[in-house]
Each structure stands twice: as structure tokens, then as C-alpha cells.
Write a structure and sequence with these properties.
2 copies of one chain form a homodimer. Chain A is of the alpha+beta class and about 400 residues long. Chain A has 9 helices and 27 strands. Chain A has 2 domains: about 100 residues, Fumarylacetoacetase, N-terminal domain (SH3 type barrels, Roll), CATH 2.30.30; about 280 residues, Alpha-Beta Complex (Fumarylacetoacetate hydrolase, domain 2), CATH 3.90.850.10. Chains A, B: InterPro entries: Fumarylacetoacetase, Fumarylacetoacetase-like_C, Fumarylacetoacetase_C_sf, Fumarylacetoacetase_N, Fumarylacetoacetase_N_sf.
């Protein structure tokens, strides 16, 4: 790509605290009062109408932008991703094309950016795995024996992935009671601060991909809140893993930040405890130096960096194909809860309140877990010099259970 | 529906040991040298070409039969399922329409009958859960505390579901070694004899369905072999459940036997150890009196009845929506391994050989787990008076690992 311009003719994109400068160009899906859902790119306070761009001959993506999801565009492959990014950079640069069709973000409704094919959730923060392990199994059995050797993951539920702004209904569920199980509204509703990687290429049954190949298969990233019902989880999760405790909703950000935009922020992750088996070794650091955190009712709560993680998305994807499992465009891989070592760096209330024992104060109110009406927001950005690559909001408000 | 005729003008359908009599009419997807994949119904040794039937005005399914999967037909809903079944029964009865377009099964290639939306696997044979629990965790912790109270399930991988006849590659994977984990070809490759239920209606985020509603949402059933890499499973499965050990391939039968065809065989399941919570109680028995079993290289191995199960597909589906998880047309729910109480009634080699300790003899050869080149077949049929409702073959042959 040609030299990266630093400024756009769209003024809001040039503000230092704007999530969507010209260096970012994240993809999403939007609609307006006048137009059906279609693909767009965020720039400043505007959205580039990609379908309209193509209709006017400003770029070529084989009609894939006129769809209500990014999957068809993503399926065109990495050369198309790079070509479109380069073309948009030209159109939006200070000396670009001011006739590029735009929609004000304030006038748009944002939709789920991808049709989620399948959803896999990992568990790649050592701090989180240890902290939660202590609460579920005690300190001696906290970190599973295989944890430092493989990215532990489980299949989640794609149908319950929703876009930021979707209300989340407190779930009912079966939990352990004093005299046998009871059916109840969840009493220990939690969030999980995660990054989601979006798979951008298919692999075949019986085919394994290397970490290097896996990295090339990743289109981009979203913020991801893996809402969790801890009381339901504790009763159901052994021996086959979390199930209904994780199926009440998973919120993702509407904007997919591309790997290309994050490339300048490449970073090493957590220090390795032991060498990895060759199929998981990576030749260059696979993490990003990226601030991530979460808010409750607007108050900043946990705040950390994605580079505390132990396994990268590329390592997770390579491991995912280890048995020959086919991957498909639109698969979503959750990083696992991102928690730093300190209590104010944790990405879940379960950790922050130590299993509900130590309440936190939120706008003067005490909380152990999430109450009805609470709004949880995630944020994330990689800080450049005079600009930042952000994701925009990723929020959800909890509704009372429907008993 | 009018009185069920007992004979068809297609002679092979009237044989007592034919899996596909006029009482069955299972749906699938087939192609021939001259035609692209489309929907069909098995009858005797023939397939009714449903797309051609519709083209000739013999039935009406809104064009859904001209597709390479059953999903669009299934999405039409139960009234359409019943109407088409009634119409096919008329066309194929002894006094039916001998111009109904047919293809010889011998000339057809059978395809995956549904586009699998998501795949969930349960664990509903108490015998199996106990037997495997002993091997993984010892007799005291064998049956998890919640087992008799809820259908334990986990999300599987839809992308690795394949149709009968697809070769299965022995997976590579990470397993526990004497000096830390090693990367190796699976040494304990196993089958799991299951029934798969196909969800035929959508539910919404935050919506729960009752057991009665769930039963109405099930379109039909397939045989399902959940190939399992036991050594990979043992190392990876705690605390988040099986992952790569179950993603090497899941084989289903090409024919979907409808709930309507199985209705005369409705049966109670295993005796309850304790009362269920109200959301899992069912007003009438939710199981079927149906012989199921598996073969290895043609030799009969485990042989039991589906009615040994503890939780029905309808109970599993109701539980699946417990937290408000949305279900979608084409979701596949594995019953869990079907094992009777005796060793020759078990649905997995892990149980039959007691974790590989007691080899079995197959055509004069000793086996603990599956060797390269072995073919595993499943069978299943409900025995009526003078006819049976069968699934046809569900087979797969194991190829050597690609190291």
C-alpha cells in the first residue's frame, strides 16, 4: 500500500480521540430510513455507503456490499480486502473524492456486521483462568494441567450473538439449591470482556492450518461481551462445559476493525511458562498493544490491555483445525475474558468481586453481579501517535427475567 | 390423515425387511448423473424426485424441493410436512399414481440432507454417562450431580457434520504424555451411536419453549455417529468440555425419518430416579421403541433400543431454550450415545472394551479402538407388524492420519 495518509477531508476523523480515523476504516452493516441494510465503513462521524460506492463505479466488490452482512465481501479473500482498503484510503484522504457517498452515523441504524456461521469461545487470559479456577475449583486445581500447552476453547452458540445496543434478558435456569436443583431467574449475571476474531476464509474437513496460515485467514476483530450466568454455569458445566449459562446473548460491536488497521500495534503477549508444541509456535508476535476495558452504567470498571493474553487468535484458529475441523467464513472466535493481574484490570465481575464476596461501588451503588437495568459497555482502542484505532461502543442493558 | 395404506405399487417397499415402506417416507437430498442435488423421499429401492413432482404439479411445496438441502421445505412448517406426507402416501399407495417421478436409489448419490445450522450434542443415556464417568473420573464421581435433573449438553461443530459414506480422517491432536503433552495421531479413536433430532422451527432470543412445543418443533430424526478421539478428549475436556476430540467428523444418515412415521412407536424411556422440574416434565412418553445398533467391518457389535434413554429430544430442546437461546431450522441435536446396561448393548468402544482394557473380537481380529481402514456402520429401525421404519445405512471408513 502507498504511504498512509494521516488526515481525511472528513473533519471529525482527524480528532485525536475519534475511534474512526482514516487509519482505521472498520467495516459494518447499516440501514437508514431510506435504505435497507448494506455494508459500510466508519470514518469520523460518517459511514461510507459501500453499496452506493459500487453502484457509482467508485470501487468493485462484485456486488457483495449490497448485502445485509459482510460475509460475501469477506469471502472474496485477502487481496480484495487489501484492494478495497487501499481504494477507500484514496477516496477519503485529505485530497480524496468529496463526492464519496456518505451517511451520517447519527441517521443510521447499525446491524450485526456478519452472519455468524459458528461461534467458538476461548479462555486465553492466564489471570482470568486462574482467578475463575480458584472460585470454581479451589487454588490447587485452578489452572487446568493443559492450560499453558493449548488454547482451551469450547463451541458457543452462534444464534445468540447480537449487535451492540440489543437488550439482554436475564435468563431463567436450573441452579443448585439446598434441597436439590431449583428453576430460578439467574442471580449471578456477569459480563466477559473479550475480543472476537472473524474468520475470513474456509478450510476443509481433515485439513490443518498453521499459525501463519491462520493469521492470513483472519479478517478482523470486534469487541465481544460474553454474558454469563454464573449460578447456572456452576451447576451445569461439568463434565461437558458451559451451555445455557452462555446462551442468553453474546454482544459484539457493530464495527469490524481489520487486521490491516491493527498491524502497527503488533505486540508480544504474556510470558510463556513453557515452550509450545511446534504446531502452536508463531514466528512473530500475534497480539496487539490495545487498551480494552468495560463500563457499568457509564462508570469505568476493569481496564487492561489485550496483550496480557497467552494465546493469540491465530494460535486459537490453528488449534481449532488441529483435528481437521473445517472453518468457514463468518466463524467468530472469542479470545476469552481479558483480565490483567490486578483486581481493577479484570474483565468480569466474578473476578472483580471475588465470586460476589467483595462488592464494588458503581455510581455510589453497591454491586456484586449485574442488576436489572444495568448497562454494560466495552471499549477498546490501539493508541497511535495523534490518532487511535477504536471499535466504537459495544453495549447492552439487562432486562428483568421473564418468569 | 386418512387410513394408512399398508402397501405400495413399488414392490420393494412391501418387503418385510425394507427400511423404506410406504409407512416411512423419509426425506433426503440426492443427485444423479443428469440432475443437481434436490430433495427426495425414499420408497423401497427408489427415490421420489420431489422437485420433479412439483414441476409436474403433483404436489406444492413453494419450490423448496429444488434446493440442495431440506431446510427450505422444513421451514414451511408442520402443516406443510403433514400435507406433503399425506399427498405422497396417496401417490405411492397400491392404487396410487404410477407416473410419480422416481429415480432408482442405485443410480443416485445421496447428500447431506440438511444444511446443519448448529449442532448440539447431549448425553442422555444413564448407562453411557455412568460407564464413561467411571473411566474418566472413577466410580464415585462417575455420574455428575445434575445428571438426573437436566439434559446435559454441549455445543458441537456443525461444519464437521458429514453424510454417510464420507471417509473419516484419523485426527492428529495434543494428548498427555509422560513428559508433558505430545502431538500425535489419535490412538483411541471411537464411535458414538446416537440419534439426531432435526429442529424444524425457529425460536427467538429470550423465548423459552415447553416440552410440548419443543416436540412440535422437531421435524425428524437421523442416525448419528459422533466420532470421538478419546485420548485427545481426556487431555482437553476440563473445564470447558470436548472440543477438537469431537470435531474430526460427525456422520449422519442421508434419510431423515419424520416424527410422523415414528409416532406409532412412541414409548416411555428409562425409569426416573427423581421427579423432574416442571419445565422438563412431559405429558406423554417422548421416546420411541426403536432398535439401534452398530457394526464394525460388517459384524454386529452393540445392539440396544432407543428407549433406554433418560431425556427425550423434546426435553433436550426445551432445556436448550431455557436461557432464551434461539433455535433455528436445521439445528441438529444429538441424543447422546445410546447404551443399554449390558456390555453388548453399549454404543461406544470406550464402554465395550472398558477403556481399552478388554479387547473385542471383530471378524477374528482383536480391537480395543478403531484401526485405519475399519468401517463403522449404524442401523436403526422401529419394528411394526409386517413392516419396519428404518434409516438405511450410516457408515464411515477411517483413513490414516495425515501427519
Amino acid at each position: 500500500m502507498a504511504k498512509q495518509p494521516r488526515r481525511s477531508w472528513i473533519a471529525a476523523a482527524n480528532k485525536e480521540d475519534c475511534d474512526f480515523p482514516i487509519q482505521n476504516l472498520p467495516f459494518g452493516v447499516f440501514s437508514t430510513a431510506d435504505s435497507a441494510p448494506r455494508c459500510g465503513v466508519a470514518i469520523g462521524d460518517m459511514i461510507v455507503d459501500l453499496a452506493e460506492c459500487e453502484a457509482r463505479g467508485l470501487l468493485d466488490a462484485k456486488g457483495s456490499f449490497a448485502r445485509p452482512h459482510l460475509n460475501d465481501f469477506i469471502a472474496l479473500g485477502r487481496p480484495a480486502w487489501d484492494r478495497i482498503r487501499e481504494r477507500l484510503t484514496e477516496l477519503l484522504a485529505e485530497d480524496g473524492n468529496q463526492d464519496t457517498p456518505l451517511v451520517a452515523m447519527a441517521d443510521a441504524t447499525l446491524h450485526l456486521p456478519i452472519r455468524v456461521t459458528e461461534f467458538t469461545d476461548f479462555y486465553a487470559s492466564k489471570n482470568h483462568a486462574f482467578n475463575v479456577g480458584v472460585l470454581f475449583r479451589g487454588p490447587e486445581n485452578a489452572l487446568p494441567a493443559q492450560w499453558t500447552h493449548m488454547p482451551i476453547g469450547y463451541n458457543g452458540r452462534a444464534s445468540s450473538v447480537v449487535v451492540s445496543g440489543t437488550d439482554i434478558r436475564r435468563p431463567m435456569g436450573q441452579v443448585k439449591g439446598d434441597d436439590g436443583p431449583v428453576w430460578t431467574a439467574c442471580k449471578r449475571l456477569d459480563l466477559e470482556l473479550e475480543l472476537g476474531a472473524i474468520v475470513g476464509a474456509d478450510s476443509n474437513l481433515g485439513e490443518r492450518v498453521s499459525v501463519e496460515q491462520a493469521e492470513q485467514m483472519i479478517f478482523g476483530y470486534v469487541l465481544l461481551n460474553d454474558w454469563s450466568a454464573r449460578d447456572i454455569q456452576a451447576w451445569e458445566y461439568q463434565p461437558l462445559g458451559p451451555f445455557q449459562s452462555k446462551a442468553l446473548g453474546t454482544t459484539i460491536s457493530p464495527w469490524v476493525v481489520t487486521q490491516a488497521a491493527l498491524e502497527p500495534f503488533r505486540s508480544a503477549g504474556a510470558e510463556r511458562v513453557n515452550p509450545l508444541l511446534p504446531y502452536l509456535q508463531e514466528e512473530r508476535p500475534g497480539f496487539y498493544d490495545m487498551t480494552v476495558g468495560w463500563t457499568m452504567n457509564g462508570q469505568r470498571m476493569g481496564h487492561t490491555n489485550y496483550n496480557v493474553m497467552y494465546f493469540s487468535s491465530a494460535q486459537q484458529l490453528a488449534h481449532h483445525t488441529g483435528s481437521g475441523c473445517p472453518m468457514r467464513v463468518g466463524d467468530l472466535l472469542g479470545s476469552g475474558t481479558i483480565s490483567g493481574p490486578e483486581i481493577n484490570e479484570t474483565g468480569a465481575l466474578l473476578e472483580m468481586t471475588q465470586g460476589g464476596k467483595n462488592p464494588v461501588t458503581v455510581n455510589g451503588e453497591s454491586r456484586t453481579f449485574i442488576q436489572d437495568g444495568d448497562e454494560i459497555g466495552l471499549y477498546g482502542y490501539a493508541q497511535g501517535s495523534g490518532y487511535r484505532i477504536g471499535f466504537g461502543p459495544c453495549t447492552g442493558t439487562v432486562l428483568p427475567a421473564s418468569e
